[in-house]
Amino acid sequence: QVQLVESGGGSVQAGGSLRLSCAVSGVTNERWCLGWFRQAPGKEREGVARIYSDSGLPYYDASVKGRFNISQDNDKNTLYLQMNNLKPADTATYYCAAREFTTATLCSLQYDYKYWGQGTQVSVSS
Fold it and tell me: Among 7-16, 58-67, 69-78, which stretch is predicted with the lowest mean pLDDT?
């Protein structure tokens, strides 16, 4: 019953900004893990950032720390990824994802997320 729909991707020059949005439905008031992943052609998917749905506690991969911000608007049931100072290396298809929190894995991006959006393309030129 959980559904995720991304939007907001596009093409920008290095140093520019984009804000990705993810419409979330079917998530309860329990603690859920909401994350952003990305995948470039020929490369494995990697975790970018995640947030605890109840507390808003964020985590960022080192490659985007200080440049990206993950946030949520619970009233609008929307997850955001604000991307600043974009680099060509950020070029990828970006996916939002969700899974239940567990005490064993917390919301680690290293463990499989169950629900996925369709992806939105981000292209950064130098």
Answer: 69-78
Cα(74)–Cα(83) distance, integer angstroms: 20
pLDDT at 37 over 90: yes
Smallest Cα–Cα separation from 41: which of 126, 111, 125, 121? 121
64-88: per-residue pLDDT in tens? 999 999 999 988 899 999 999 999 9
DSSP letters spanning 14-46: TT--EEEEEEEES--SS-EEEEEEEE-TTS--E
Closest CA to 37 of 125, 120, 124: 120
What is the C-alpha to C-alpha distance for residues 98 and 109, in angstroms, rounded to an integer? 10
Tell me the CA distances in angstroms from 15 to 23, 67, 85, 115, 126, one per residue in order. Answer: 26, 10, 4, 31, 9
In single-letter form, the type of residue at position 104 comes to A
Count Cβ atoms below 10 Å from residue 116 Cβ, excluding itself: 18
